[in-house]
Design brief:
Blueprint lengths: L6 E11 L4 E13 L6 H7 L7 E6 L13 E5 L12 E3 L16 E7 L3 E5 L9 E12 L2 H6 L10 E2 L2 E2 L8
Antiparallel strand pairs: 1-2, 1-8, 3-8, 4-7, 5-6, 6-7, 9-10
Length: about 180
């Protein structure tokens, strides 16, 4: 079966930056709904017409995926507003930011703690791959027809290429996978 709209594709991949540094590897196949919200449009277009066993290489520019880095989404917040066990790499929903954080920080954004100083915490609302051109090597491990339920949801439910904050969908250009 060829990959078309409204089918489910099982993929594995290797994700690298343009210098060849490996950023992510998915060894076990994960299913995605083509024609739904599971995959970036650039990936869906590249997969069209392929079938099980295909290897597909794509270069994805920031504007096709996670957008450019936006320094307006960096916030320096007082350390005392956060719990003692806060760690670099922790993510938090903007709607869950402690009282006293910068009111300009969008509440519908997912933030990553990037630095912790004695007096301040740095929160970054950018996608971790924002501003980075990426190379994606995909292996098509399987293709099948989508169920009515998957089509109705617009997803296989994997969530790799979409993030939700308080049930508010973040636009595709701001998602992690």
């Amino acid at each position: 079966m060829d990959i078309t709209e409204q089918c489910v594709v099982a993929l594995t991949w290797t994700l690298k930056d343009t210098l060849g540094e490996e950023l992510d590897v998915l060894d076990e196949p994960v299913e995605f709904l083509v024609g739904g919200r599971d995959l970036l449009p650039v990936i869906e277009r590249a997969l069209q017409g392929y079938t099980t066993g295909a290897d597909v290489d794509i270069q994805i520019e920031p504007e096709q995926a996670f957008g450019d880095f936006n320094d307006q989404l960096l916030f320096l917040e007082p350390r005392g507003l956060f719990p003692a066990e806060l760690e670099v790499g922790l993510t938090m929903e903007g709607s869950a930011l402690p009282e006293g954080c910068n009111p300009a920080a969008p509440r519908d954004t997912l933030y990553t703690v990037t630095d912790i100083y004695p007096e301040h915490v740095v929160l970054d609302g950018n996608h971790p791959l924002a501003g980075i051109a990426i190379r994606l090597h995909l292996q098509v491990e399987g293709v099948r027809e989508a169920t009515e339920e998957e089509i109705g949801r617009g997803s296989c439910g994997t969530g790799f290429f979409q993030l939700r904050v308080d049930a508010v969908e973040i636009p595709a250009e701001r998602t992690l996978h």
